[in-house]
Amino acid sequence: MAIRLLAASERRATPWKSGGGVTREIAAAPEGAALDAFDWRVSMAEVAAAGPFSRFEGVDRILTVLAGELELSFPGAPAVTLAAGSEPFAFPGDRDCAGAPRGGAVTDFNVMVRRGSVRAEVRRMRAGAPLTVPGEALLVLALEAGSLGGARLEPFDALLADHGETLTPDGPFRLLAVDLHRA
Question: Which of 72, 89, 158, 183 lies in the 20 to 30 Å Cα band around 45?
Fold first, then answer.
């Protein structure tokens, strides 16, 4: 069993081919997997310009806006606007989608899982009670500074914990929790 600190300061920015933003991978399984070979992948992105999202065949996505406002458009469907307080939004990664920042750059949190292999649930929450890992893994992203599982977290630092681990907060703070389960 393990708990790993994934510091925001250690993430490498990868520019998009379109030039419209950058992505920073937080974690993936298997570790180091290419974009066509992961079981699950969690990342943050900075969206600076409107444009199409990359398609990922056989992948389900959950997008959560952390800062700014992002309008998502899908062919034949009404646009969806997500803001910093919006609930996580799930959609198929192999569906055409375009994103347009409204009023400035957007920071988002993206969870992708291989359909049929892994399921994910993303929750906004306020840590106050211990978090037990119910599935294969739990990734927790700090939205503000706090302590969890004996680790001091700065905004956008993450902890990755394996099944059976328990993360105990030293006090309440806001975070995103990603439960990852084998399908």
Answer: 183
